[in-house]
Amino acid sequence: MAKSRSDRILSTPSSYARRHFLYVQEVGTLESIEPHISRRQNLESFLFFLVISGSGRLYYNGSYHLLKAGDCILIDCRLGYAHESSPDDAWTLMWVHFYGQEAPSFYQLYLEQSYPFLFRPLHLDPFTSAISSLYAVQKEESSLTELISHKLLTELLTSCFLENQRETSLENTIQDKMNLIRTYIETHSTEKISLDELSERFFISKYHLSREYKRIHGITIGQDLTARRISHAKSLLRFSSDSIEEIAIHSGFQDAAYFIKVFKKLEGSTPLEYRKKW
Q1: Which of 18, 25, 30, 142 could link 97 by a cystine bridge, Cβ 3.0 to 4.6 Å?
Q2: Phi, psi of 243 (to 5 degrees)
Q3: Global confidence as pTM
């Protein structure tokens, strides 16, 4: 029994195409019926494929990567790879193997931008459309097939570049905003600060703010704020004669009891014990 159903076209380029174009080696779709591993190595080819539905995993560049619907992959087959559909969530793929004298240079440029071989585009249409068109062109076999294929492959690679450029720009924007928020927290840590206030001030949802702040800075907003308040309190304990109650208020805590509780949890001693030690 077949382990998959595929609809593919294999193409043999002309000598002119080999010298001057990006050309299709194989293009098609695959619907996995039961798990099986597709494995290649030392293959003079580049592979772009996308997961239409289902899930699976890819072994490439020394590690395994889980794939799911909406993921796109652009890899150098000379390095070797293997992929396998999930046993309980069989996938459907669209793919194209391609090569050409300039293909390694294209891919090297892609890597130099620090773009990932596995990415998840905002819209799949440019990628599914390109592969569908490449398939139709190979099937038609006109005198312009190789020229049109070169154009479509160039557009497909361009879409890969543009999508990852968009992701990089978006990531830089998020990074800048999280840095700005952290600076605000540092400056206003002794004041009353809430997640709602930060959300409104910086025009970002509370959920997105909490998630991205932790992802980028490795600490929650609450943890960051508390650590800064305790640091301020430690300075006052050492270099002022203020009472514990005054230090609690000046450090941004609502009452002395809560301040003492948090201080002891983080420092292992009460504020008064800390002051005596220093």
Answers
A1: 25
A2: -70, 165
A3: 0.66
